[in-house]
Amino acid sequence: MPGFYGPLTERGMFEICVGALLTQNTAWANVEKALEALWRGGLMSPAKIASCPLPRLEKALRSSGYFRQKAGRLKEFCRRALAEHKEGFEAWFSSASPEGLRSELLSYRGVGPETADSMALYAGAKRTFVIDAYTRRIGERMGIARGLSYEGWKGLFEGGVGPDVKVYNEYHALLVRLGKDFCRKSKPLCASCPLDKVCGKLI
DNA sequence: GGCCAGGTCAAAG
DNA sequence: CTTTGACATGGC
User: What pTM was estimated for this model as a whole?
Assistant: First the structure.
């Protein structure tokens, strides 16, 4: 997700998790409006969302699409996180192991592999690679592999990355940027695109 | 008006 | 285990 470059404060980490849930199959611009609505409504905290009436939460999330589904899942996410992690997101995420955090996040309704990895990487600074539609599409169009599962792609990309967490973060950001510019669903890869020169060396 | 956007889940083959 | 449909708004 774009726009997550601030320090990992309690509040910031929570916002990253909210953004990760809201951006599922949705343009980021629509998510930003919803995040802004949450801030304006004084709802940007696990406790506030956990106790917020569903209709009000749905209204705040409207612009992010699938708003009924997302409101229910976000509220439940907050309720459970509060109940099971009274120490807060910062302590929770920083003390968790990468695998432990990932599998725990996966047990929440509405948190699939990509969302779990996004939260772990961007909010928890864990060394876990995020596989999204762009990453797969770029990988397929470059002929790196075809029809791999999420775990398959993840293993492939992680195998080509060094130990630095920051690289995971920047590498993914780079793939997204390249994807937006050259690897849209309806935009075929063309001879002039720089993908072969940029990705070819990294993978 | 149609297509697409940094997915997830449940049901069915 | 793979495929399919539902979920919904906003920009181009």
Answer: 0.93
